[in-house]
Amino acid sequence: MNFLTRSCHLAASVGLCCLLSGPLGATVPSRFHQFAQVGDGGGLRSVFLVANKNAEAVTIVLELFASDGAAFPLAIGGEEGSRFERVVPAAGMIRLQTAGVGAIPRAGWARLTADGDVGVQLLFEIRNNASLITQAAVDSSPPLKLFDAFVETAPGTDSGLALANLSSVGSIRVRITLFTEAGGQAFQEEITLGIRQQIARFVSQIFAGLGNFRGTMRVESSGPLAAVVLQQTGLVLGTLPVLETL
Q: How far is CA 144 from each of CA 126, 136, 227, rounded to the nearest angstrom?
């Protein structure tokens, strides 16, 4: 169960959930944007906000991929598909929102390309029927091969990690290492992601039997990744910044 699915189940079980976005940096306009986790269904919707501050209109293409790398068709604006092309007016913005259909939440990842620089953010919304319970904002991820993040696991607390293979030519190897607060190496796991494949797991799922832990996580990859890290404490799920390592 990935962290979006678990959050939806929590919201359904208690009728209340609080997602708080972590400290977000300024969204840098670019022609390329990647989001390592998107979801839809079971009260969950994904909303892409695209801003164009150019003097001319910009054409964007949003592509959705399932965890196995296959196309991930969703309903957006009354249209069903895994690829959506839209025009963002000069100095304007558009909103691409999944329909949130289905009783069971499904998850994948997304790539957005444009013929001009645009700013993009993704909102995760959890709803109870038509009522918005909460939402969290996530910036697009740059292609990454090496980064660190803070992690903590304890009763009612866990860190979540989503990774997507941005390569369209081959599999990549990913090494995930946990370091204690004192800097010592504690645990290590390696995974392989095929072309356009994605994984979204809590740290306690990646490292079985981890128990209580607080420290940092280093992710090293043989190819470009999109990444997002979240921290869940009780009913609160917040985004954490990725610490790029030079």
A: 28, 22, 8
The pTM (predicted TM-score) of the whole model is: 0.88
Considering the domain architecture, whether residues 47 and 122 belong to the same structural domain is answered as: yes
- For β-strands 157-165 and 198-202, DSSP reports them as antiparallel
Residue that wins the pLDDT comparison between 13 and 95: 95
Q: Amino acid letter at 57?
A: A
Q: Flag whether 246 is in a domain.
A: no
Mean pLDDT of 10-19: 44
| Domain interval for residue 135 | 3-22+29-73+81-139
**In this structure, how many other beta carbons lie within 10 angstroms of the beta carbon of residue 241?**
14
Show the tokens assigned to 50.
């695209």
Residue 164 and residue 149 share a domain: yes
Position of tokens 């998850």?
A: 107
CB of 105 closer than 8 Å to CB of 75: no
Once rounded to an integer, what is the mean pLDDT over residues 203-216? 93
Q: Compute how many other C-beta atoms are within 10 angstroms of the C-beta atom of residue 244.
A: 11
What gap in Å lies between CA 214 and CA 154, rounded to an integer? Answer: 9
Is 49 contained in some domain?
yes
Rounded-to-integer distance, Cα 183 and Cα 89, Å: 49
Distance CA(165)–CA(222), nearest Å, equals 10
pLDDT for residue 128 = 79
